[in-house]
Write a structure and sequence with these properties.
Elements (H helix, E strand, L loop, with lengths): L2 E6 L3 H11 L10 E7 L2 E7 L5 E6 L2 E7 L2 E2 L4 E2 L2 H7 L15 E7 L5 E6 L8 E5 L2 E5 L17 H10 L13 E2 L4 E5 L6 E4 L14 H20 L8 E4 L4 H12 L4 E6 L5 H13 L2 E5 L6 H12 L14 H4 L5 E3 L4 H4 L3 H6 E2 L4 E2 L1 H9 L5 H7 L2 H4 L2 H14 L5 H16 L4 H5 L4 E3 L5 H8 L3 H4 L3 H10 L1 H4 L17 H24 L11 H5 L5 H10 L12 H7 L17 H16 L1
Parallel strand pairs: 15-16, 15-18, 16-17, 18-21
Antiparallel strand pairs: 1-3, 1-11, 2-3, 4-5, 5-8, 6-7, 8-9, 9-13, 10-11, 10-12, 13-14, 19-20
Helix pairs in contact: 3-14, 4-17, 4-19, 5-6, 5-19, 7-25, 23-25
């Protein structure tokens, strides 16, 4: 992807001043190239890596720009900006369906002066924000530069803030700024002078009972066939000797991806983040060795967390929470892998069925909005605590009203109850957590996500809950199609590395290891020195530790700005939820229980420049 900005402004002097003022601010990272084009009252600017796939077209009918790879048809044909311009030349009611792949595009037409159409990929992972009126349109992959336009008046959207604090993601398009919205997934943005911008539905995640009646084995085969074809379509190189990068973790999803890449003979250079002793690195190394892949391990730059937090707050406005700041350190490693990097983001909820665990009450076995919202809210600030935190004279009943709006949106979704949960999860947690990372990666190499595929989504959307739940089908695919990989140790973000196909020798070793570990734990309790800490081999526990050195630095970075929120929050409650940097926070779950505090850290840093 790229960091792009579109301005449609009939005031040519004002537009020129705005463009001059933001042109040098556009690159989020060093080393990016910038470019621009114009048509009438519309001007487009972008910053991207040299290798980013970008297509432009300009003629008497206007200009079009495509950032990324839009894939049409089963032959994996990559389309260009001219084809986008033709497909989006119709009226909103006759618009073409979106393409597969990860991309965004903008078309500015001259034969209908000033008309602008902007859209993105199937799941809406490429961020598109817009601010519009009959006289002005601003569209960008980040809302940050809007504030430099003379006609834009930044004002806090209290409802947008409540949605972010509840779910750690944008709710129904509302951002921290009033009248600045994020384009809904599967929608196109239409605008013309003297009219308000409108979002037009182009695609909806499919939900059907198409494969419910098939035997489990047949369902597994269909899921694998869809996945295998998608990997080939999305990841096959454009040139015979071209290689691509692969983000390889120690878990299931990237293993499923690596196996399919190997079957198609796609040459990859794998990258794993972490320390040599991490469970993640141990398992990923075994996969790379088994497939004969070139493999590189790079440490996470925890000391750069404050720099990464600045980038995430500045360019994302806390839209994706703040927990994943470490991913801003990945782009610098990608250039050495190739121009494109294949990744398994969102395979977990789409193919692995993890979203079902979020929506299903384990006591009843039934999916519901209440269970799903409770799961989402664990990664934000608990509803009762948020009511206490926010000043009632400012926010009124917005907390409960936001939850009710979410409930209504959930109820309006089609399909079985578990399918509503599947789609709702992808449009919220999936889109704004794991789905927020590819935009950051694009500044190093272009992300290739085979999950962004019509057939994969349609196949998964037609499977019964029992097939997808708890990774049942995904694990069976690995066992059947990639047994060598299924026999390797598997990272589960815990010390349990048991393979999906454990050998007899593995079972014996596990029994011995468990007995030794029990003895060591007993001995350790008896002889532990005060203050002694074991080495943490679970990478994500280390990365998300609010009391670790990286997050301590971010907490110190945010601390001076508490007073800026005094008009919005109750200071005593803020102190409970986010203690000062020198206080060790008691966390039952290092990952889940720290996300609400990190949201508040992001808001404090954001308030420095925006409140």
């Amino acid at each position: 992807m790229a960091n792009f900005l579109l301005v449609a402004d009939p005031d040519s002097d004002r537009r020129a001043r705005f463009v001059r003022g933001v042109r040098t601010r556009l690159p989020p990272l060093d080393g990016l190239r910038t470019a621009e084009c114009a048509a009438g009252d519309v001007q487009l600017l972008w910053a991207a890596a040299d290798s980013a796939p970008i297509s432009t077209a300009a003629d008497g009918d206007g200009v079009a720009v495509l950032w990324g790879e839009a894939i049409a048809g089963p032959d994996a044909r990559r389309i260009g900006a001219p084809e986008v311009a033709r497909a989006w030349a119709e009226t909103p009611s006759r618009i073409a369906a979106p393409w597969d792949g990860l991309y965004a595009a903008a078309v500015c037409r001259a034969h209908r002066p000033g008309v602008v159409v902007v859209g993105a990929d199937l799941l809406g992972l490429f961020p598109i924000y817009f601010y519009g009126s009959p006289e002005l349109l601003l569209v960008a992959s980040s809302p940050e530069l809007f504030r430099h336009h003379p006609a834009f008046r930044p004002e806090l959207d209290t409802a947008g803030l409540v949605g972010l604090l509840l779910t750690a993601g944008i709710v129904q398009g509302r951002t921290l700024w009033r009248d600045v919205r994020r384009l809904a997934p599967g929608h196109l943005l239409f605008w013309e002078p003297r009219a308000e911008p409108q979002e037009v539905s182009q695609y909806a995640l499919p939900a059907s009972d198409r494969f419910f009646g098939l035997p489990f084995g047949a369902q597994v085969n269909l899921l694998y066939d869809a996945w295998d074809a998608a990997v080939a379509r999305h990841a096959l190189p454009g040139e015979a000797d071209e290689r691509c990068g692969l983000l390889l973790s120690g878990g299931r999803d990237s293993r499923l991806l690596a196996g399919a890449l190997g079957c198609h003979g796609i040459r990859c250079a794998a990258l794993t983040l972490g320390e040599p002793g991490d469970f993640e690195v141990t398992c990923a190394t075994a996969v790379a060795t088994s497939l004969g892949m070139e493999h590189t391990v790079r440490p996470d730059a925890v000391d750069r967390y404050p720099q990464y937090a600045e980038l995430q707050v500045t360019w994302e406005h806390v839209a994706n929470g703040l927990s994943s700041v470490y991913t801003w350190g990945v782009p610098r490693h990608l250039g050495a892998l190739g121009h494109r990097v294949v990744a398994a983001y969102l395979v977990d909820p789409v193919v692995g069925g993890s979203s079902l665990a979020w929506a299903v009450d384990p006591a009843t076995g039934r999916a519901s909005f209440d269970t799903l919202f409770g799961s989402l809210n664990q990664y934000g600030i608990a509803r009762d605590r948020l009511r206490r935190l926010l000043r009632r004279e400012v926010f009124g009943d917005l907390v409960d009203e936001t939850v009710e709006r979410l409930r209504q949106a959930y109820d309006a979704l089609p399909g079985e109850e578990f399918q509503k949960g599947w789609r709702f999860f992808l449009e919220h947690r999936g889109r704004f957590h794991a789905g927020g990372t590819p935009w950051r990666l694009c500044f190093g190499a272009w992300p290739v996500l085979p999950v962004q595929d019509h057939v994969v989504l349609e196949t998964a959307g037609g499977m019964p809950a029992a097939t997808l739940d708890r990774r049942r089908a995904e694990d069976e695919v690995l066992r059947r199609r990639f047994p060598d990989l299924a026999r390797l140790p598997l990272d589960r973000n815990s010390s349990n590395l048991e393979p999906l196909i454990p050998s007899a020798w593995w079972r014996v070793r596990r029994g011995v290891r468990d007995r030794v570990a029990a003895v060591v734990r007993l001995a350790g309790r008896a002889s532990a020195r005060p203050g002694a800490r074991r080495v943490e081999r679970r990478r994500y526990v280390r990365l998300y530790d609010l009391n670790g050195p990286g997050w301590r630095a971010v907490r110190r970075q945010a601390e001076p700005y508490r007073e800026r929120l005094a008009g919005l929050v109750v200071p005593e409650v803020l102190g409970e939820l986010l203690p000062p940097p020198d206080v060790t926070v008691d966390l039952r779950d290092t990952i889940i229980d720290s996300t609400g505090a990190k949201l508040l850290l992001g808001l404090l840093i954001w308030s420095r420049d925006h409140m």
